[in-house]
Hints:
By secondary structure, this protein is an alpha+beta fold.
Amino acid sequence: MTSSxxxxxxxxxxxxxxxxxxxxxxxxxxxxxxxxHASTNVVSAxxxxxxxxxxxxxxxxxxxVSHNITLVLSCRGVTAEQLVEGVEATVRGAExxxxxxxxxxxxxxxxxxxxxxxxxxxxxxxxWIVPGTRWGLGVAGPGTVAGAGAVAGASTTESDGGTAAExxxxxxxxxxxxxxxxxxxxWVDGSTLVLSVHHLAVDDTSWPLLIGAILAGRWPGPQPxxxxxxxxxxxATGASVEASPERVERAVAHxxxxxxxxxxxxxxxxxxxxxxxxxxxxxxxxxxxxxxxRRDLDPTDLAAFAAFAPTVGGTPNAALVALCAVSTAxxxxxxxxxxxxxxxxxxxxxxxxxxxxxxxxxxxxxxxDSSGTTEQAMxxxxxxxxxxxxxxxxxxxxxxxALRSSGGRFPVMxxxxxxxxxxxxxxxxxxxxxxxxxxxxxxxxxxxxxLAIELAGPSRAHLEVDYQxxxxxxxxxxxxxxxxxxLHRIPTDGQQPLSSLIDALTHPRFxx
Length: 512
């Protein structure tokens, strides 16, 4: 581990202080297993399991922008009017984008069951700032987030200017009021489109549908439910039901054997947790000011690694998650660590236009023997991944509830590893239309270090390293070096001791 890594616990304590002010001294509420809030009301629809978890995280710190997802799409072969038509049609068609959240715990709505957060449709229309050229939804003027009088359901905030880059940076850093404004803001300038969406309304599964509809200029219509799937039994949104008590019990038992045991240290600082068990439940994420580093991965290395993956018992995606775990061990020197891995938990029959966020958090405990081979380290990591992924159908919330009831603490997680598709993957653009995109950081890193591999094709991917300023920029550069080097070395150096690979990557002269 590099000597420049600073202890991020001060940022964690500041986050806890803010959340105590927001939520009081009680631990954050988490859904109990078996309790559902599905609604059959055609006007308002209950949130899904994962959506309710994210809603509660949002309520802990409504000023947070860590869940803002912002993209800039540079288009060729499409006009401003066509982009506007596509955005408006998509917002009208996708229930998750055309609604606000009503929470009876806060609003005391006597017409609905107490404690049921739900979506309520809310009309909102954009406006032309410069007719035929510049347009905004939730953006009233050049670089201004509109008030409710200008665009229904938006908050009022001033931004820094009117270029696409400036507007995108501003929107990425502007909190959403999900009870008063739509979870999407859009800005069109000629053939450039800026989209900023709250994570409650979009995930990796729904991005292709939403962006594809915008580019096509029309909403494709309701996405069909699968009668045999969970959506048929879950109410109007198609939101998944909770796992059975037996499944929750098995998932909790797995947690207690692995990532929830006592004595696990933070990998970056090598420290044991210093918060109380009660305080730890107020910090589901350890967000702090941060930045992002992006690096393209070598296509030849990606192809070789994909061919190597079956030899250690994994798919290419699973092997890439294992690569992130081994990289963390090499970067930090930790041989026993927990990494958070997000998993898409959308089930057959769950239409992404009606259900927004369907993600789950899967903590995975990895243990390494530096005297063993690198291939064995990969094999053990893949096995740990599959053992944990057995419980992707059990939402993280009920597991935490069960652990908390026995006096446990929030998992010791400083590092997240993610392998995800590009937002543009599998989107069929209209003829003669080309689109480039880039993501815009919110300036907040939910974890001290996140290693995200974004797949654009079978042998096309880039690495995004999100890092908190407390961990230091050189740690992010070093992490990118380690991931890139291991991607290249593992398929051919798998029989070498892991210690030899660690030693090689410790010395700059060996870096490629």
